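so im writing up the methods section and need the Catechol 2,3-dioxygenase-like lactoylglutathione lyase family enzyme record in one place, dumping it here so i stop losing it
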Amino acid sequence: MKIKESGLILFLENYEENVTFYTDKLGLPLRERKEGLSKLDFGGSYLMVEHKGVSSVTEKTRAQNPTVIRIEVQDFNEAINELRNRGVTVQVHRFDWGTIGAFTDPEGNRIEIKDY
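--- predicted struct ---
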């Protein structure tokens, strides 16, 4: 198998609100947009967001969403400050294997920023 590109697909209940979150708050460039589907640049791959998902007002449990979107960055502190300046509430957790900044999108999907 020769892989051209890889990507993730995330189904969202409040599609428009989340497209704005991923483009404006996370700063992911929009590659393509169709009715109910947006394809975002995701560091050498893509994140596709589509409508017809299920939202939660709190962080989803692993039973509700057994995945985490993890983004490894070159400058962790700069990335965390950038997110906070855009209004994202980020909780920093330090472990012996590394440091992560955790937050959720408006649907309750967990996202983590990790030091590279």
